[in-house]
Specification:
Helix content is about 70%, strand content about 0%. The chain has about 300 residues and is mostly helical. It has one domain (about 5-295): Farnesyl Diphosphate Synthase (Orthogonal Bundle), CATH 1.10.600. A two-stranded antiparallel sheet has the order 1-2. Helix 4 runs antiparallel to helix 6 (about 105-125), helix 10 (about 185-195) packs antiparallel against helix 11 and helix 15 packs antiparallel against helix 16. The two termini are about 25 Å apart. About 45% of the residues are buried.
């Protein structure tokens, strides 16, 4: 199947899974559940669920087995966006083309919605009956997602980002921050997709992790480039917000041409990591190209 129809198929699966697991807006506490659904549904590219689906597909996993892990990854991502947008963090008013959760509801509800989405992600990994019943594999998934979301992953990267505002960083420091802030969930997405198919060899998991590490950094470089070259209407969030907050970015540190060259270099390295899977890896290669060249 060509890439775009395939992505739309899996995006629709992810949306359906989210609809299933999120509490209905009419269930008490109604305002909290409405905020959780507002932030999670009808928006975003679903890159992390797509990585789960395409990695699992490459290795032979059935889509139904992948729905739970894909949904869990997206809920962790959405929770991070809600909290990142808060006045105490990035203080943004627009996300995915609509008012941020704390603007649409209120700050306290947004904080609680993020907290609840994080909890729901782990509930899904523990309880989804469609996933493989192997308790050891589920435990590995829980461990992977917990590490990726916590202080040694995404939350730690956000702390580094906040601490670095207005300060100069070198390339090693910038990449270390983004390996945590953006890369950790990208790597977790690929790993959960792989763990959904029992029997994947440790060496194969290492190759897939290298692919994900390279793509996580390339994804962030592209984000930094779009913050300079993109438009608010296309991005779905304010253009130029990184510069306004004096954030360290790849274009600011390296210059635009070198930042683009670095993204291309990481993309090529990621593609090389998939060589052993031959034609079966083509959808994953295509997704990597989409990530590198996307306009939003």
């Amino acid at each position: 199947m060509p890439l775009i129809p395939l992505l739309k198929t899996y995006q629709a699966r992810a949306e359906k899974a989210l609809q299933h697991w999120l509490p209905a807006a009419g269930i008490n506490p109604t305002r909290l559940h409405a905020a959780m659904r507002y932030a999670s549904l009808d928006g975003g590219k679903r890159v992390r669920p797509l990585l789960v689906y395409l990695t699992g597909q490459m290795l032979g996993a059935k889509p139904a087995v992948l729905d739970g892990p894909a949904c869990a990854l997206e809920l962790i991502h959405v929770y991070s966006l809600i909290h990142d947008d808060l006045p105490a963090m990035d203080d943004d008013e627009l996300r995915r083309g609509k008012p941020t959760t704390h603007i649409q509801f209120d700050e306290a509800t947004a904080i609680l919605a993020g907290d609840a989405l994080q909890s729901l992600a782990f509930y899904i990994l523990a309880h989804d009956p469609a996933m493989h019943a192997d308790a050891a594999l589920r435990l590995q998934m829980v461990e992977t997602l917990a590490l990726a979301a916590g202080s040694r992953g995404m939350a730690g990267g956000q702390a580094m980002d906040l601490a670095a505002e207005g300060k100069e960083m070198n390339l090693a420091e910038l990449e270390n921050m983004h390996i945590h802030k953006t890369g950790a969930l990208i790597r977790a997405s690929v790993r959960l997709g792989a763990l959904s198919q029992p029997g994947v060899a440790p060496a194969q998991l290492e190759s897939l992790d290298h692919f994900a590490k390279c793509m996580g950094l390339a994804f962030q470089i592209r984000d930094d480039i779009l913050d300079v070259e993109g438009e608010t209407e296309t991005l779905g969030k304010p253009q130029g917000s990184d510069e306004a907050r004096a954030k360290a970015t790849y274009p600011a540190l390296l210059g635009m041409s070198e930042a683009k060259r670095r993204a291309d270099e990481l993309h090529a390295e990621a593609i090389h990591s998939l060589a052993q899977w031959g034609e079966a890896a083509q959808p994953l290669r295509d997704l990597a190209g989409y990530i590198i060249h996307r306009q939003s």
